[in-house]
Amino acid sequence: MAAHVAERRYRVVLAVAAGLPLVFLALFFAWPAATLVARGFTSEAGSWDLSAFQEVSARPRTWRIIGLTLGMATAGTAVSVLLGIPGAYALYRCRFPGYLLARAIVAVPFVLPTVVVGVAFRSLLAPGGWLDFLQLDGTVTAVVAAMVFFNYSLVVRNVGMLWARLDPRQVQAARALGATPLRAFATVTLPSLMPAIASAASVVFLFCATAFGIVLILGGVELATIESEIYLLTTTFLDLRAAAVLSIVQLVVIAVSLAVAGQARKRSERALNLRPDPFAHTPGRADVPALAITAVVIVGLIVMPVAQLLWRSLHRAGEFTLANYRDLADAGATRAVRVSAVQAAGTSILVALLAAAIALVVGVAVALVVTRRPRTRARRRALAILDATFMLPLGVSAVTVGFGFLITMNRPPLDLRSSFWLVPLAQAVVAVPLVVRILSPVLRAISPRQREVAATLGASPLRVLATIDGAHLLRAGGVAAGFALAVSLGEFGATSFLARPESPTLPVVIYRLISRPGAVDQGMAMAASVVLAALAATIMVLVERTRPAQAGGFA
Questions:
Q1: What CATH number does the domain containing 467 carry?
Q2: Which InterPro entries did the record assign (predicted)?
């Protein structure tokens, strides 16, 4: 009888763990997304109407924007992969003095908010920057370079971690049979790496296609992508139907990219028998090209923009000064915003903490449910569908999420227009899939024998859940919370729609400052970017120090 009651309570807990996140997803994702899609297919009166599609598709600018989005994302992905493969080999297959420092430097760009990346490259390429002579400011090349800066580390890490665990004896056997180094790489190593390369490339394409802050700052109106055009149509022209149509187009692009990433990830999980421990060697003469390419990328593409950003933040009108940092605490230093940058930083931290807390609660509940091991095929299929359902926000741009909130959370029964919780909820929707992706591999890695032993010793299902799963969740949950906090801290896409003028976040303040021509505003934008980058990097350094080996990632 007691065992039956305990089992019943366990099922109730799992039902609640699945039900509450579903309610959250329905209210703050499905409803706004469905309303947004419907806006593109219906007229103002609510009747079926495809005229918006016809009107938007008839504009030459629409096709130019779609072409630019796909073209720049493709170029950014191709260059990231071409530079990332030598980097993966140099940093994960070679052991040389300072390789850990080089890995840390390469990891920095990926944790930086896109607004900071855009400001860093603008400071490098704009008049007065170290690379001003190249005259690349406002060009496609500048935008693609910033995309590569942001995504290079993703390719290096995902490909490098797999490469380090490939058995070198296969290549040695090919060389013994007369294959040249290039032929051995092309016929033995590259096919083994292809699943990781394809998975990383598809995710890089996703990030390049949704690099809102980078494109908005470096490209402006002339080099608008689908995301930045949605922002301009909504905030400048109030053309919500056209923005809804472009949002639907973007959903299709991102859905295809996610589908490719999912298939590549499945292939990488089951394609190879890997060494349990990473393998690396002391570099030789044959490794010089990969090491040289990696050194040039690290210095020229990663270190230089960050160094230029820091340098410009310490100068105004050509003179060294700390005025840019002092002005961050002065609400009257600029007319770009109503509050000081320090107040905006406080708002960002508070909003990010709330968003991370919401995302962690929802993500833990989802991860606990989708990592169960049911015995029947029907239940396994149901959990697979549930898992895919909670990954849907990963396939929707943050701009689309913010736009969806804008047109749904403005009337009863859920009028949040004046509520402080509007921005944390939107940021939590963006962060939930990330939390699930980090926690799920940790829970799936738990040996079933641990649970079986605990149950044999008399522990109820709930006690097993608390003592076995709970123990693993404590550390992994901290990592997931840190990732969610860093992502929310730099989130700009959804927040740009929803932040109120009297309580902007720091990324919104940076964009407003960098959009003004004055030396004071430009200097403050550089200083605020350094502060935001330092906050995000500090969080990620702490996260990486406690990251479990089984924790998931992006690709």
A1: 1.10.3720.10
A2: MetI-like, MetI-like_sf
**Domain residue limits at 78:** 52-312
pLDDT digit string (tens) for 179-198?
Answer: 787 888 888 888 888 888 88
Residues 156 and 194 in one domain: yes
For residue 42, give the 3-state DSSP assignment: strand
Distances from the Cα of 409 to the Cα of 32, 43, 299, 498, 524, angstroms: 8, 20, 46, 10, 33
pLDDT digits (tens, 9 = 90+) for 510-519: 999 998 888 8
- Helix locations, 210-319, DSSP H: 212-218, 226-235, 240-270, 288-297, 304-313
Question: Which residue shows structure tokens 């009863």?
Answer: 412
327 within 8 A of 334, measured Cβ to Cβ: yes
How does DSSP assign 380-406, residue by residue? HHHHHHHHHHHHGGGGS-HHHHHHHHH
CA–CA gap between residue 74 and residue 140 (Å, rounded): 12
Cα–Cα distance, 3 to 463 (Å, whole number): 12
Cα separation, 367 vs 361, whole angstroms: 10
- Distance (Å, rounded) from C-alpha 444 to C-alpha 372? 8
Alpha-carbon dihedral of residues 44, 394, 140, 248, nearest 10 degrees? -20
Its sign, for the CA torsion 267, 271, 277, 282, is negative
Contact 116, 320 (CB under 8 A): no
Does residue 299 sit in the same domain as residue 405?
no
Are residues 359 and 484 in contact, defined by beta-carbon separation less than 8 angstroms? yes
Cis peptide before 374 (omega within 30 of 0): no
Same domain flag for 57 and 187:
yes
Query: Which DSSP letter does residue 339 get?
Result: S
Up-side HSE of residue 282: CA atoms within 13 Å toward CB? 0
Percent of the chain with pLDDT over 90: 25
Alpha-carbon Rg for the chain, nearest whole angstrom, is 25
Tokens 């807390």, residue located: 357
3-state secondary structure 499-544: CCCCCCCHHHHHHHHHCCCCHHHHHHHHHHHHHHHHHHHHHHHHHH
472 and 531 in a single domain? The answer is yes
